[in-house]
């Protein structure tokens, strides 16, 4: 029998049919939707008089546009208000389960799917959002789709999709002090560039990956998209099963035992061949930060921005343009540079472990006076956990406030915008021009690095503050 990768095993078992010399028709196990990319898709099926084929396979939440303060009051921003109301109306009309504003399960779509146990190994999962790749941390094929494809899934529970090439990134060894999963993925992207995995689906493997928690694995898979990959995945193991056990939507009793037996077979065969393999030594990774306007423009916090001559000639113009936007210069050191804002949150780093990590570093310290900090849990469940674990008191004692759940300052589609010209150390996933607000300057980093900046008021290596 031919040796197969984990990706092949799941993909091939979900192909309904194939278009000759074209894409596969892929069956989708779970469809997530939110208020931004679903309205036109609902309108599309209604215009064609097509019912929602399997409404029970779709789950909705409001996250992108919602405010993170005073959620009990009517939404002030008109566009946000319209989009959230449209989602509510559409879900009622078509029989889709919605975790709307105020619901105890409300939160960022890529946070709630996992914490509720909806996301499970071996699934195919789509959402009209590029960071759907987060769910690949469970050993599933998860990827973002466009609005026309959302309509396709509504109508047929299938999507037309060309099969990507396969890449494996192996990370072996023990991580250095202060290095987190966010540093791992920022390091990978800095090495292969923001387009280095274009056309591939990536499997992350190796002892360093296996040592990570589920929250950490989700951070890595989440940012696969930032190196151009179609998605990222990690083979399920005991860590995965322990995380899922007893979650609300996870199988129960005898069904659980059967599911785990099935999930244990979800791994790449020993002789399986990838189109590309990359090997990384975990010891080579230090705490990372970005300095430019794409996630590939990253360096060690204790390092320097590259000199112009270190950049390949065809990229020098865009490199210089990015530095001009950030008001940085080639060769400069980043450590010690003052910052204005700190944002902890997003589908990349808005889970309970991220808040725990941030809190562990600020405990016994005070927020720097020059810093405005937004700490935004990824869901109502994360918010509740932070309260129940006493993290809230520690944060408040250090001068921080916890906001209400939502995508917040990750993408500035709501009220949380970084002002023009201001520097934000952000735990989110993108640092494009204006991503966090017109003229804002984003430095992507881990929750530990965000905490270090929040208490020192400048870019600081968190390893220097860890006992």
What's a concise summary of this model?
β9, α6 and β10 (200-205) form a beta-alpha-beta unit. This protein has helices at 6-14, 39-48, 78-94, 109-115, 147-156, 181-192, 207-210, 214-222, 238-244, 253-263, 316-326, 346-349, 352-362, 380-388, 391-397, 447-456; strands spanning 15-18, 24-27, 30-33, 58-61, 97-99, 124-127, 141-144, 158-161, 165-172, 200-205, 231-233, 276-281, 288-290, 298-300, 341-344, 372-375, 423-426, 441-444.
The fraction of residues assigned to DSSP E strands is 15-25%
Per CATH, the architecture of the largest domain is 2-Layer Sandwich
Strand order of the largest sheet: 5-4-3-6-7
Number of helical runs?
16
- What low-confidence regions span 5 or more consecutive residues with pLDDT below 50? none
Distance between the termini: 52 Å
Q: What proportion of the residues is helical, as a percent range? A: 25-40%
Kindly name the structural category.
Answer: alpha/beta
Q: Say which CATH homologous superfamily of the largest domain is assigned.
A: Aconitase, domain 3
Number of separate structural domains: 2
CATH structural class of the largest domain: Alpha Beta
DSSP summary, beta strand count: 18
């Amino acid at each position: 029998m031919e040796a197969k990768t984990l990706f092949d095993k799941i993909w091939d078992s979900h192909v309904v049919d194939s278009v000759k010399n074209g894409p596969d028709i892929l069956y989708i196990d779970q469809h997530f939707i939110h208020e931004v990319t679903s309205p036109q898709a609902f309108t599309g099926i209604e215009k064609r008089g097509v019912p929602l084929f399997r409404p029970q396979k779709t789950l909705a939440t409001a996250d992108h546009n919602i405010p993170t303060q005073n959620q009990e009051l009517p939404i002030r921003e008109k566009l946000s208000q319209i989009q959230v109301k449209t989602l509510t109306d559409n879900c009622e009309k078509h029989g889709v389960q919605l975790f709307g504003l105020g619901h105890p399960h409300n939160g960022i779509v890529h946070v709630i799917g996992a914490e509720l146990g909806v996301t499970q190994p071996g699934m195919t999962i789509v959402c009209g959002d590029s960071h759907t790749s987060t769910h690949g941390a469970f050993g599933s094929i998860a990827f973002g789709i466009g609005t026309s494809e959302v309509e396709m899934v509504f109508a047929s529970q299938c999507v037309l999709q060309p099969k990507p090439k396969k890449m494996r990134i192996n990370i072996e060894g023990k991580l250095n002090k202060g290095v987190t999963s966010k540093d791992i993925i920022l390091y990978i992207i800095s090495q292969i560039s923001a387009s280095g995995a274009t056309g591939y689906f990536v499997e992350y493997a190796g002892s360093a990956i296996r040592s990570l928690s589920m929250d950490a694995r989700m951070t890595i898979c989440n940012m696969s998209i930032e190196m151009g990959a179609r998605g990222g995945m990690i083979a399920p193991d005991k860590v995965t099963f322990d995380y899922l056990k007893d979650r609300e939507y996870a199988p129960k009793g005898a069904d659980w035992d059967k599911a785990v037996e099935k999930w244990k077979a979800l791994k790449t065969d020993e002789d399986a061949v990838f189109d590309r393999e990359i090997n990384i030594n975990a010891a080579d990774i230090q705490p990372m930060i970005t300095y430019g306007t794409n996630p590939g423009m990253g360096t060690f916090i204790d390092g320097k921005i590259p000199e112009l001559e270190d950049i390949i000639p065809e990229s020098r113009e865009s490199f210089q343009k990015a530095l001009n936007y950030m008001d940085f210069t080639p060769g400069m050191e980043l450590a010690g540079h003052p910052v204005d804002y700190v944002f902890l949150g997003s589908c990349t780093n808005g889970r309970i472990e991220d808040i725990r990590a941030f809190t562990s570093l600020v405990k016994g310290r005070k927020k720097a006076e020059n810093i405005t900090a937004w700490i935004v849990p990824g869901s109502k469940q994360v918010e509740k956990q932070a309260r129940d674990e006493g993290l809230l008191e520690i944060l408040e004692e250090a001068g921080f406030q916890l906001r209400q759940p939502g995508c917040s300052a990750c993408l500035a589609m709501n009220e949380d915008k970084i002002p023009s010209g201001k520097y934000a150390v952000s735990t989110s996933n993108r640092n494009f021009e204006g991503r966090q607000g017109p003229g804002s300057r984003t430095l992507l980093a881990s929750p530990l690095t965000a905490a270090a900046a929040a208490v020192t008021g400048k870019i600081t290596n968190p390893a220097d503050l860890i006992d």
